[in-house]
Amino acid sequence: MPELPEVEVVRRGLDRHVVGRQVVAVDVLESRSLRRHLAGPADFVARVTGRTVTGARRRGKYLWLPLDSDDAVLAHLGMSGQMLVQRSDAPPDRHLRVLLTLSDGTQLRFCDQRMFGGLSLSDGGAELPAEISHIARDPLDPEFDEAAWTAALRRRRTGIKRALLDQTMVSGIGNIYADEALWHARLHYARPTETLRRPEATRLLAAARAVMLAALDEGGTSFDALYVDVNGQSGYFDRSLQVYGQVGEPCTRCGTPIRRDSFMNRSAFTCPRCQPRPRRARW
Ligand SMILES: [Zn+2]
């Protein structure tokens, strides 16, 4: 599953290679990839064809391409979605679902093996699609309101990792970056949010930002070429992971073996020494 830094890499690639181009043709090879566009594939094709892409924006893990009609193409990558910008003569990917031919002779290709992702046209959504307006800003967003987040956090009666994963409070922090940020901030995931002191909340947010920016730096080379790609399975961000997936490995700070707990049907990885379990815990 692509996390926020991977989606931001895609956004930057789209910004470089797609913005300013006109969509001269749209081909829908798999209508299920447009199932969120309730008016149907023909309507999508009619309203995107001939339009010029004026931007490449992101809210959490959603991307949107504002069009000169004031509508926007809204995209979610799901588990395995990819946005490839390729020359029209490049052989198509096996999982190619929707194809936008651009005025500069390239094509924006939406590929999706597992089909959890998709595209839709957001009516009047150029500034911010209504479909995603409930999603909170993410820590990399310049307009993220840290004071409001900290206040909301301390009002909650939940565990800190649950709060990090709650997309209505802060978006874009998935399982991997939640565990990494908590390790950097030396906080246990079951720490009750109402007991979090302001400096701890600030430290945690700074840690989340830092791990995301580090991942962005590592992924930075992939959007230099005429190729925009995201692949949740590929491990090119794995090198810098301190706890996620590192069960039994020594903590790089203190040498204690990293521990794995079951958490919300998934996992939580911690260093038992750097992140001791709180006496009062909220799972
Ligand atoms: Zn440690």
Summarize the topology.
Elements: H1 4-17, E1 23-28, H2 41-48, E2 57-59, E3 62-66, E4 72-76, E5 81-87, E6 96-102, E7 106-112, E8 118-122, H3 146-155, H4 160-165, H5 175-184, H6 198-219, E9 259-263, E10 266-270
Antiparallel strand pairs: 1-6, 2-3, 3-4, 4-8, 5-7, 6-7, 9-10
Bound molecules: zinc ion (ZN).
How would you describe the overall organization of this protein?
The chain is of the alpha+beta class and 283 residues long. Helix content is 25%, strand content 19%. The strands form three sheets. It has a four-stranded antiparallel sheet with strand order 1-6-7-5, covered by helices on one side. The protein has a four-stranded antiparallel sheet with strand order 2-3-4-8, covered by helices on one side. A hairpin with a 3-residue loop joins β6 (96-102) and β7 (106-112). α5 (175-184) crosses α6. The protein starts with a helix and ends in a 13-residue tail after the last strand. Residues 251, 253-254, 256, 271, 273-274 line the site of zinc ion.
Write a concise synopsis of the structure shown.
By secondary structure, the protein is of the alpha+beta class. The protein has six helices and ten strands, in the order αβαβββββββααααββ. The chain has helices at residues 4-17, 41-48, 146-155, 160-165, 175-184, 198-219, and strands at 23-28, 57-59, 62-66, 72-76, 81-87, 96-102, 106-112, 118-122, 259-263, 266-270.
